[in-house]
Amino acid sequence: MITFDDATVVYPGGVRALDGLSLEIPEGEFVVIVGLSGAGKSTMIRTVNGLVPVTGGSVTVGDRRVDQLGRAGTRQLRAEVGMIFQAFNLVERTSVLNNVLMGRLHHVPLWRSTLGLYGREDVEIAMQSLELVEIVEKAYVRASNLSGGQQQRVGIARALAQEPTVLLADEPVASLDPPTSHVVMKYLQEINRRLGITTLVNLHFLDLARKYADRLIGLREGQLVFDGPGSEATEEV
Ligand code: ADP
Ligand code: ADP
């Protein structure tokens, strides 16, 4: 369970990006957050792993209040929370497999990962993650040789290799064309169904959100303006 309790984020300079947000996300839910650019979607999901600290209220993941974790606690939380980015954020001049192994960094001592000394188990988990997004045949291809949609599937695999309990996807399809966006959303949905990982996805296209959201959350100026099944969302969101 992820709990937002009157969660507020005021950035230095005074922008109120999140304004008294209260809601609960049960384990295993597939939540899509929609809103215009600047509505606070990125800020909202980044409070979950503490990348953006709340300035008021609280965010709780399981039994942990994110704002009360020390350095070690925050590191542990981030190990359990996978992130998927708009621009994929792959290291382009290395292989797909190496990129996915970076998801294992949280599980491997730094001296070993520095030397590229991942264990057999790490490689197996990385390959299984690539299988989940059906791109295992590209494991030894340079990441920059893949299309955008393929790169995002690798981004998803890297997050899965972390063995996360929560997945945060910040505008994961904003750099992709509509057909490819559907492919990526289908993988995210299917992974949620199969593995039961609580998933929060930011989107700015309402039609895409409606189609995939079990639960759709609408934000406007940092406030909750809709919370319900995707099928019931109107243009007002
Ligand atoms: P969205 O993801 O919905 O586009 P964001 O959460 O990125 O919205 O931004 C919400 C508001 O907070 C915007 O007005 C944005 O300019 C502002 N903002 C975001 N990040 C920062 C930051 N690091 N410092 C100051 N203002 C920020
Ligand atoms: P998005 O809306 O897709 O999240 P933006 O282009 O709004 O992305 O922001 C990109 C980056 O710049 C983010 O890391 C965000 O936190 C930061 N940012 C956004 N608005 C501001 C701002 N007004 N001041 C400082 N940083 C900002």
UniProtKB/TrEMBL annotation:
<dbReference type="GO" id="GO:0016887">
    <property type="term" value="F:ATP hydrolysis activity"/>
</dbReference>
<keyword id="KW-0547">Nucleotide-binding</keyword>
<dbReference type="InterPro" id="IPR050086">
    <property type="entry name" value="MetN_ABC_transporter-like"/>
</dbReference>
<dbReference type="GO" id="GO:0005524">
    <property type="term" value="F:ATP binding"/>
</dbReference>
<dbReference type="GO" id="GO:0015416">
    <property type="term" value="F:ABC-type phosphonate transporter activity"/>
</dbReference>
<dbReference type="InterPro" id="IPR017871">
    <property type="entry name" value="ABC_transporter-like_CS"/>
</dbReference>
<keyword id="KW-1278">Translocase</keyword>
<dbReference type="GO" id="GO:0016020">
    <property type="term" value="C:membrane"/>
</dbReference>
<keyword id="KW-0813">Transport</keyword>
<keyword id="KW-0472">Membrane</keyword>
<dbReference type="InterPro" id="IPR012693">
    <property type="entry name" value="ABC_transpr_PhnC"/>
</dbReference>
<protein>
    <submittedName>
        <fullName>Phosphonate ABC transporter ATP-binding protein</fullName>
    </submittedName>
</protein>
<dbReference type="InterPro" id="IPR027417">
    <property type="entry name" value="P-loop_NTPase"/>
</dbReference>
<keyword id="KW-1003">Cell membrane</keyword>
<dbReference type="InterPro" id="IPR003439">
    <property type="entry name" value="ABC_transporter-like_ATP-bd"/>
</dbReference>
<dbReference type="Pfam" id="PF00005">
    <property type="entry name" value="ABC_tran"/>
</dbReference>
<dbReference type="InterPro" id="IPR003593">
    <property type="entry name" value="AAA+_ATPase"/>
</dbReference>
<feature type="domain" description="ABC transporter">
    <location>
        <begin position="2"/>
        <end position="237"/>
    </location>
</feature>
<keyword id="KW-0067">ATP-binding</keyword>
